[in-house]
């Protein structure tokens, strides 16, 4: 795949691939400096103030939402979570919901002018719940995509951990595309997988290609560094907490209307969804024909559903 003119050059092709008619929105890269000099990065789509803000899952980046936002047809903001995309890595490796929510809240406060329809998938969903609980002034409605605190971290999520395990750098992006396709990831075609790899990797000064997100580098360091292994074990305890009661506590504290969207082939089982309903009886639960990355597997369905939510339906 040839290098694009800019990171939004793919949008017309994505719209055509998905059969989305109409003008393609303008795109803009935003950057905000956080305390300590770290940066938070995001993509803004459209010329009006954002109505919908999107948070992606672990190992992804803001561009995972491109086609969903095209289908949505509304001004939107998609944020690179810390440690992902063009946002800075965290030295404390605190990639769990509450620390991430504190960073993301600063971005939403700076880049929007009204409470948002906040949509988060996987890690982004848990982060969105923590943010909605802590900053209700920023959230009009919460949509959590294919994650609940009850999801078994040793079930579906192991595929993602296995995918990112291994070398931290590669000779070419084509090698990463081959790996994505071998794991059944990337959207089903080599062209789509190449597009995803382009946004999720960078070429270093020495010509080697590396993942942008911190997780692959942490996994490699852990294998050869006992101190890093100990830190990672502590981080896994924190993840277990988020996938346990602390995650449920965040959801219980959310005052905004809440919807869970699960992929019928995703990580959230029917039992998980039933537990979600038991704990949050006023919330809605919907199922779409998709795997865990609903925004990539069923972007038209998801975009249409979110458009109705944004209109207050």
Question: What is the terminal-to-terminal distance?
Answer: 41 Å
User: Residue ranges: pLDDT <50 for 5 or more in a row?
Assistant: 231-239
| Mean of residue pLDDT values | 86
- CATH class reads Alpha Beta
Strand content: 15-25%
Describe the strand arrangement of the main beta sheet, using strand numbers: 1-2-4-3-5-6-10-11
Under CATH, the homologous superfamily reads Alpha/Beta hydrolase fold, catalytic domain
- By helix and strand content, what is the structural category? alpha/beta
Total count of strands: 11
What fraction, in percent, of the residue positions are helical? 40-55%
CATH architecture: 3-Layer(aba) Sandwich
Radius of gyration: 18 Å
Largest sheet: 8 strands, mixed
CATH fold type: Rossmann fold
Order of helices and strands: HEEEHEHEHEHEHHEEHHHEHEHH
Q: Rough shape?
A: globular
Work out the count of structural domains: 1
Enzyme class: hydrolase
InterPro entries: AB_hydrolase_1 (IPR000073), AB_hydrolase_fold (IPR029058), Carboxylesterase_BioH (IPR050228)
Pfam families: Abhydrolase_6
Keywords: Hydrolase
Describe this structure in a few short sentences.
This protein has 313 residues and is an alpha/beta fold. The chain contains 13 helices and 11 strands.
Strand and helix layout:
Layout lengths: L10 H8 L8 E7 L5 E7 L6 E4 L10 H7 L3 E5 L16 H15 L4 E6 L1 H12 L4 E7 L12 H7 L4 E2 L2 H10 L7 H11 E3 L5 E3 L2 H11 L1 H17 L2 H9 L4 E6 L6 H10 L4 E5 L5 H4 L1 H12 L3
Parallel strand pairs: 3-4, 3-5, 5-6, 6-10, 10-11
Antiparallel strand pairs: 1-2, 2-4, 7-9, 8-9
Helix pairs in contact: 1-2, 2-13, 3-4, 4-10, 6-7, 8-9
């Amino acid at each position: 795949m040839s290098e694009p003119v800019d990171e939004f050059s793919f949008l017309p092709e994505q719209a055509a691939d998905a059969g989305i008619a109409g003008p393609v929105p303008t795109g803009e890269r935003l950057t905000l400096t956080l305390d300590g000099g770290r940066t938070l990065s995001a993509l803004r789509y459209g010329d009006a103030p954002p109505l919908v803000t999107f948070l992606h899952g672990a190992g992804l980046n803001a561009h995972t939402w491109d086609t969903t936002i095209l289908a949505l047809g509304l001004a939107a903001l998609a944020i690179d979570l810390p440690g992902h995309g063009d946002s800075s890595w965290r030295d404390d490796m605190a990639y769990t919901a509450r620390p991430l929510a504190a960073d993301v809240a600063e971005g939403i406060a700076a880049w929007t002018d009204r409470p948002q329809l906040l949509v988060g998938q996987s890690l982004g969903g848990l982060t969105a719940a923590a943010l909605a609980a802590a900053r209700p002034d920023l959230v009009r409605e919460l949509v959590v995509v294919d994650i609940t605190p009850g999801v078994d971290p040793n079930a579906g999520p192991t595929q993602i951990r296995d995918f990112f395990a291994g070398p931290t750098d590669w000779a070419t992006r084509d090698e990463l595309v081959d790996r994505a396709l071998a794991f059944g990831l990337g959207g089903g075609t080599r062209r789509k997988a190449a597009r995803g790899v382009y946004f999720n990797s960078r070429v270093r000064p020495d010509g080697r290609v590396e993942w942008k997100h911190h997780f692959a580098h942490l996994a490699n360091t852990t294998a050869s560094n006992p101190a890093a292994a100990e830190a990672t074990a502590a981080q896994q305890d924190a993840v277990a907490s988020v996938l346990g009661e602390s995650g449920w506590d965040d959801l219980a504290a959310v005052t905004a209307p809440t919807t869970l969207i699960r992929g019928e082939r995703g990580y959230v089982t029917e039992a998980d969804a039933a537990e979600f309903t038991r704990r949050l009886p006023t919330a809605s639960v919907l199922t779409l024909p998709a795997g865990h990355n609903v925004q990539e597997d069923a972007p038209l369905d998801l975009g249409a559903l979110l458009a109705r939510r944004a209109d207050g339906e």
